[in-house]
Amino acid sequence: MFIFFLLIFLVCLLLVQTTLIALPLVLESLIVVAVVFQKEWIIFIAFCIGLLQDMMLLQNLGQSSLFFLFTLGILFLYSRKFEVNTIPFVFFFSLFAISTDLLLFSRGSFLPKLLLATFTTFVMFFFCNFLSHFFLKKT
Question: What's the Cα-to-Cα distance from 76 to each of 52, 54, 56, 80, 83, rounded to whole Å?
């Protein structure tokens, strides 16, 4: 049931990202979900959402999904050595991932997009932590 709601949420964010705002909302939400829940099935969802994003943005098929896989792979690699569910890690990792995404795939003003995307990542991180502590059982 949780995976179904996550897919609906990611598709809605993808629609907002491709039609209204030029912020990497899907990347932000994938980072936050991977940090908070730390499940490997997120990688498969990231690949599928990346393919869908490439189709909706009329980009070369596989660019976004490879970037999502690379980013989440690095995140899961560091999750074995560091405590990733902390504010400093989310700040620096999202700053690195969003700036790389903006440099590779975006045009226009870099710094305002980076600051706004980092802020929205924090909002999503706190909201997702709140949901995980109060509504989901930690195993």
Answer: 23, 24, 27, 7, 11
